[in-house]
């Protein structure tokens, strides 16, 4: 699942392909010193990995259990 606010989409545009995600400021996090900057996404039943870059969610870096979506979504 990918999520972005309507305001963010209005300012930056909506990615039309997985490759376009690399051009956007994605919300990533670091766990045990490793950045989670490759998103696994399913498109038409095929799982693909896409490298992203962007802002690190500091709450997740600190292990804050209230940070982010517990369903495993990715955020722009």
TrEMBL record:
> Per its record, how is this protein called by name?
LysR family transcriptional regulator
Species source reads: Klebsiella pneumoniae
Q: Which domain of life is it from?
A: Bacteria
Region spans: Disordered: 50-76
Give the compositionally biased regions (Basic and acidic residues): 56-76
